[in-house]
Design a protein that fits this description.
The chain has about 300 residues and is mainly α. It has one domain. Helices cover about 75% and strands about 0% of the residues. The chain contains 14 helices and no strands. The radius of gyration is 18 Å and the shape is globular. The chain starts with a helix and ends in a 6-residue tail after the last helix.
Length: about 300
């Protein structure tokens, strides 16, 4: 397989992930965020289970692996999905996806605090760019965005950072990527189901457009997107795949503007660019933090 094929897969995966907010908005016309997140994971699990049975893939894992994927599925997947998709109710999808994309900066910060991993000078620059980007997206100190929406989008970045930091360590490090994704999605569906039952926030009276959107979310934006990224990592490596992953927020911004009529001021566009640039910096291969890109995108399993 040549490099161009890997690049195409990485870009297609990023674009597929980037269309999630638009499809969520379609589904929101007849249901809410928690239901959309639950159905997305449930449909993804069903699609993957049928595929695994047809291919004869074994799903056996150890008890220790089960405990860890259960934790990451509930916190990393369900937590990310519920907070990110809920943020779309309060702020435009473009800024929401960009706020979510601060997760590489959070991964580096958590690695420094928890595992005492050193930050390179370039990564420090990335952290500064992330903070400046957030400041610009908030309107340069004028705070024009809804605080609840901003908080939810930032929280989604934190939850996904926990997932990205831990997924390449310990018991899950040796697991097959698609099998790992299956179990993460399974526990994410269970976690979201429990959350929805506790909050009485599950409503399945979707209209036809809602069910079509959910089908695309489950098959294209989850199964295909994760598969494309996994194959891209194997062909062109984690670092290049991670950099191409920046097409995800760009896709959300463009589709939000073209199809949802969302508008962004000049300073908000600048802030988006700074955060995306910071994400690219954290994915660049570096001797001081050579594992960073692998931990962030080697297991690109988006909630």
């Amino acid at each position: 397989m040549n490099t161009m094929y890997g690049v195409v897969l990485a870009v297609l995966g990023a674009v597929a992930f980037g269309t999630m907010p638009l499809l969520a908005k379609v589904a929101y016309q007849s249901t809410g965020a928690v239901t959309v997140v639950f159905l997305r994971y449930l449909l993804a699990v069903c699609f993957m289970f049928v595929f695994f049975m047809a291919k004869g893939v074994k799903l056996k894992i150890t008890g220790a692996q089960l405990v860890k994927v259960a934790f990451l599925g509930v916190v990393g997947y369900a937590g990310t999905g519920i907070t990110l998709f809920s943020s779309f109710h309060f702020i435009d999808v473009g800024p929401a996806m960009v706020f979510h994309f601060i997760y590489p900066s959070i991964v580096a910060t958590l690695a420094l605090v928890i595992y005492r991993e050193k930050l390179s000078l370039l990564q420090v620059v990335g952290l500064i760019l992330s903070l400046l980007g957030i400041y610009c997206l908030l309107g340069g100190g004028q705070f024009k965005l809804n605080f609840v929406g901003v908080g939810l989008a930032l929280a989604s970045g934190l939850f996904f950072a926990i997932n990205a930091l831990e997924i390449g360590r310990g018991q899950t490090k040796s697991m097959d990527n698609m099998v790992l994704t299956f179990y993460l999605s399974l526990f994410a569906a269970l976690g979201t189901l429990c959350f929805g039952l506790l909050t009485n926030d599950l409503h399945f009276q979707l209209d036809r457009n809602g069910w079509v959107a959910m089908g695309i979310l489950g098959l294209v934006c989850t199964v295909f997107a994760i598969g494309a990224f996994s194959m891209a990592v194997r062909i062109i490596g984690s670092a290049k795949t991670a950099i191409l992953n920046t097409f995800e927020p760009v896709t959300s911004i463009v589709l939000g503007a073209l199809l949802l009529g969302e508008k962004m001021s000049g300073i908000m566009i600048l802030g988006s660019g700074l955060i995306i640039a910071a994400a690219v910096i954290f994915c660049l291969p570096q001797q001081e933090a050579g594992e960073c890109a692998n931990e962030m995108l080697g297991q690109k399993t988006r909630a």
